[in-house]
Amino acid sequence: MTRLSDSFQRPLNYLRISVTDRCNLRCTYCMPSEGISLMPHEDILSYEEICIVARAAAELGIVKVRLTGGEPLVRAELTNLVAMLARIEGIDDISLTTNAVLLQCCADELKSAGLRRVNVSLDSLRSDRFQRITRVGNLDDVLGGIEAARQAGLDPVKTNTVVVRGMNDDEVLDFARLTIEDEWHVRFIEYMPFSNGKKMDHLLVPVSEMKQRIETLSKLEPSLSSGGGPARYFRLPGARGTIGFISPVSEHFCRSCNRLRLTADGKLRPCLFSDTEIDLREPLRQGAAADDIKRLIQEAASCKPEGHKLRAGITCERFMVQIGG
Ligand code: SAM
Ligand code: SF4
C-alpha cells in the first residue's frame, strides 16, 4: 500500500464524507437564515459511488472515515452506507457527526451495521436557547438521541459545542459540570467565521478563555486523547467524563492535519478553508477505473495547502453545512 501524504509530508489517513447538504436544523453559525440553494438530487453521489471513492482511498492508506453533512441522518438508509463501508478492507473506524435529532430511531441499527462512535452537536442545554440557535430544533430530541447512542454501545459519544460570544459562552461551565458525575465527553469548538470573509473576531471565544473560565471550578488535568484528532483533552479532578478543546482559530492545528473531505456532490476538498476542489463525480460517472480515482485522490493530497489564514478573514464559496465541518 502507498501511504497517502501531502507535499508537506503530512500523512493523510482520514476521510470525512458529507452524504448530503440537507439539514433538519438551521444553526445560525452554520447556515444563513434564508437557507442555502440545495444541490439537485442527481448531483449527489450514490452510496455505490461513495464506496468506490472510499475503497480507492483505503487502498492509499485511509483508515478512518466520518460521515457528516448537512445532517447525515436525513439521508435515506444511511445504515446501508455504514454497512457497505464496514466491508471495505482497510477501513477500521467509521464514525458519525450528527445533530442527533433522528438518532433515537436508528442508533441500534447503525451500531449493528458497523458504526463505532458518534459526535453530537449540542450548543445549549437550555430549551429556549437551543431552539433559537438551531432556529427549529427541540432539545429533548437531541438528549434522547444521545441517550439512545449510549444505550446502543456507540462509544464514545462526544458532544460538540461551538462557543460563540453572546450566544452560549455563558454555558461553558454548565457543560463542564456535566462531566463530573456522569461520563459526558464534551468538546468546545472555537467559532469559525465562514463564507463571507467579514471580520467576526468579536464572536470568537478563544480556547484559552474557555479554559480560564472552567478553571474557576478546578484546575484541569490533561487526559489521554482519543481518536488522534485536533482536540486536546482534559478532566476536572475526579470527574468521570472529559473536556476537549478544538482551537482552529487561536492555535490552529494545520501542521498535524491528516484529513481530506469529500463533499456530497463528489468534490475532494483538501482543506476546509480553501475552495480548491478536485472533481470525482464526473470521472466516476464516466466509468473511471479504480487507479484513475486513486490518482485523483493523490492529486487532491498534493494540493493540500500548508495552513489557513483564518485570522485574516476568509471567503469560502460553500457554507459549513455544504462541507460538513
Ligand atoms: N449536522 C451535523 C452536526 O451538526 O453535527 C454534521 C454537520 S455540521 C456542519 C459538522 C460540525 O461543524 C458540527 O459540529 C458543527 O457544530 C460544526 N460547525 C458548523 N459551523 C461552524 C462554525 N462556523 N464554526 C465552528 N464549527 C462549526
Ligand atoms: Fe445542520 Fe449541523 Fe449545520 Fe446545525 S451544524 S445547521 S445541524 S449541518
Summary tags:
binds iron/sulfur cluster, 9 helices, binds S-adenosylmethionine, 28% helix, alpha/beta, TIM Barrel, 12-stranded mixed beta sheet, 325 residues
Describe this structure in words.
This protein is of the alpha/beta class and 325 residues long. The protein has a single domain (14-323), classed as Alpha-Beta Barrel (TIM Barrel). The protein has nine helices and twelve strands. It has helices spanning 47-60, 78-86, 103-113, 127-134, 139-152, 172-181, 207-214, 281-285, 290-302; strands at 14-18, 64-68, 93-98, 117-121, 157-163, 185-190, 221-222, 232-235, 242-246, 259-262, 267-269, 278-279. The protein has a twelve-stranded mixed sheet with strand order 7-8-9-6-5-4-3-2-1-10-11-12. Helix 1 links the parallel strand 1 and strand 2. The radius of gyration is 19 Å and the shape is globular. It starts with 13 loop residues before the first strand and ends in a 23-residue tail after the last helix. 43% of the residues are buried. The structure holds S-adenosylmethionine and iron/sulfur cluster (SF4). The site of S-adenosylmethionine has 20 residues, from strand 3 and strand 5.
